Amino acid sequence: MKVSEVMTRDVQTVSPDQPVREAASFMLSADAGSIPVTEGERLIGMITDRDIAVRGVAKGHGPDTPVRDLMTDDLVVVRSDDNVEDVATKMSEAQVRRLPVIDEDNRLCGIVSLGDLSRQTDTECATQALEGVTQKGGQHQQ
User: Fold this and answer.
1) What are the residue ranges in the chain where pLDDT is below 70?
2) What is the mean pLDDT of the chain?
3) For 44-76, what is each residue's pLDDT tens digit?
4) Contact 19, 55 (CB under 8 A)
5) What kind and span of H or E run contains 127?
6) For residue 73, what are the contacts with CB-CB under 8 A and spacing of at least 6?
7) How confident is the model at residue 77, as a pLDDT?
8) Cβ pair 56, 70 in contact under 8 A
9) Amino acid 128: pLDDT
10) Are 79 and 108 in contact (CB under 8 A)?
11) What's the DSSP call for residue 69?
12) Which of 36, 59, 73, 128 is surrounded by the fewest CB atoms within 10 Å?
């Protein structure tokens, strides 16, 4: 099964110039822990609630700080034609619960979450991703 068959297509994004307050507001209303950062259709980063609450606050950044100052730009992405098994492996290795999905032209076309995998695929695939995500250690960047 391809990731394009299970991903969420309607993805809210923020621009790098928006204040982190707006990114946090979206996360609150969508009950999401991260949001892609785009310039046009090009994915340039991700910002997480952890980026804002931990890194931002620890460094003294306020709610009007531009997203670009706190976003993660070292991204792990998947392609829309990747197999869900490969996606589960990437999630596990990167210890993340969601990954941005890009198309053949490197444009953001969706996001795939651990929940998407658990609802739409066999349990072995979701279990593999969950085991890696819940292991201690690693960099939790997106």
Assistant:
1) 120-142
2) 86
3) 999 999 999 998 999 999 999 999 999 998 899
4) no
5) helix 123-133
6) 44, 45
7) 95
8) yes
9) 54
10) no
11) G
12) 59
